[in-house]
Design brief:
mainly alpha; AhpD-like
């Protein structure tokens, strides 16, 4: 599949760990994100949920913005955070809510 356009996060590490950036460009965002069975919108919801549950706040911020770009609404993201609060824990939901607020305000 085609290589995806890069992101600021990948560009920040490209000079230090170029292979990791290349794998992200070609495999994760080239093949995985371009798979035929899930929409990018659905993939964004899945990734945001996983990052929230794992407490990967720095990556979650970028993927919340990507989710909006991929057609997720602010209400859907809020519902995702509320729903996962009972599975991933209240602190992860509160942190995700704060990050979502910041991402939404930047729009």
């Amino acid at each position: 599949m085609a290589q995806s356009a890069s992101s600021p996060a990948r560009e920040a590490i490209r000079g230090t760990v170029p292979k990791l950036a290349q794998i992200a460009d070609t495999l994760i965002y080239g093949e995985i994100w371009e798979g035929p069975h899930l929409s990018k919108r659905d993939r964004s919801l899945i990734v945001c949920g996983a990052l929230m549950a794992m407490g990967r706040d720095e990556q979650l911020r970028g993927h919340l913005a990507r989710a909006l770009d991929n057609g997720c609404t602010k209400d859907e993201i809020a519902e995702l955070i509320t729903h996962l609060a009972f599975y991933s824990g209240w602190p992860t939901a509160m942190t995700a809510a704060r990050l979502a607020k910041e991402v939404f305000q930047d729009r």
